[in-house]
Every structure is written in C-alpha cells, then in structure tokens.
Specification:
Layout lengths: L2 H9 L3 H7 L2 H14 L6 E7 L4 H5 L4 H11 L10 E7 L4 E6 L1 H4 L4 H16 L3 H20 L16 E2 L1
Parallel strand pairs: 1-2, 1-4
Antiparallel strand pairs: 2-3
Length: about 170
C-alpha cells in the first residue's frame, strides 16, 4: 500500500471509532481487569489502543511495531522496579496487535509465547469483539507474570503505572 493510500486509511479512523467499539463501560471493565491482575504479580500491564498512526509514521513507512515500541517508552511501561512492564498495543486502522515487554521478561518469556498471545487475540478482534480480545491478552500476560513475578497477597505491591487504557 502506498503512503497516500495508507495515510487516507489511517485518517479515516479516529478516537470516536475506537470508542464506538470500546465504549466507556468496556474501557472501565478493562481498567478493572488490569487492576485485578496486578494484585497477583509485580508486573505492570498497559493497554494502548490507537485509531491510526501519526502521519509522520506513515511518511517514514514505519510499522505498528515501531509505534508500539515508541508508546512503550511514552507510556513509561519500562519504568517499573523489576523491569517487568508489558504493553499491549492495538492499531485499529490496520488491525495490528503488538506486545512489547520490558527486559525483566526477555530471558524468561520466548517470542513464541508472545506470538501465541497475539494469535489468540486475532479471532475475537477480527470478529469485532475488541473487549474479548483484549481480555484474552490480559489473561495470558497475567499467567506469564504470575509465573515469573508472583507476589504474596499480603506483600506490598504498589501500582506503578495507570491501569486505564490509553486511547487515541
């Protein structure tokens, strides 16, 4: 797809489109699901949903992965005590899903594990069940974080990052 066509595609979607498929009630449930998950492990999960890429990414022919990596930094998912933040990124215009994990998970979770999570999300997302797809991702990431960074329910476990999904 050429740059102009890609730009037009991305500009044809905006935050209102995202909020149509993920209304406030769904976003609140996702926020609560992340909060509940983070009581079981010391990791931090961030959801980032964008309608389309910024124009600069399109002109430079950058990918959803490039944007997910940038958003990982922008949303400070790297800024956790145990370097175990995870960003779940959804690019609405291209139906792309990316998961970016901090270095505390690099040697513990294989690329294949991350790809399996993305594959499990694909069917509900393509069927328009965005909340279901994101819940699958949260559930699967939670399992990995519990496996490697479990915390005792009595332990002090500060919430280091916002749980509210970031939408644009």
């Amino acid at each position: 797809m050429g740059r102009i066509a890609r730009l037009l595609k991305h500009r044809s979607f905006d935050e209102a489109d995202v909020r149509r498929v993920l209304p406030d009630a769904a976003l609140k449930r996702l926020e609560e699901r992340v909060h509940s998950s983070e009581k079981k492990h010391s990791g931090e999960i961030r959801l980032c949903i964008e309608a389309g890429l910024p124009s600069s990414y399109i002109w430079k022919r950058l990918s959803a992965r490039d944007r997910a990596l940038a958003m990982f930094g922008k949303l400070r998912a790297w800024d956790t005590e145990y370097n175990n933040g995870v960003l779940i990124y959804l690019l609405f215009a291209e139906h792309k899903i990316e998961i970016v994990a901090d270095r505390g998970l690099t040697g513990r979770v294989s690329e294949g594990d991350w790809r399996r999570i993305v594959e499990r999300m694909r069917e509900p997302l393509h069927a328009g069940k965005f909340e279901d797809g994101l819940n699958i991702a949260i559930d699967e990431v939670e399992k990995l974080l519990e496996q490697h960074f479990a915390v005792d329910s009595a332990a002090i476990n500060p919430n280091e990052l916002p749980n509210k999904p970031w939408i644009r």
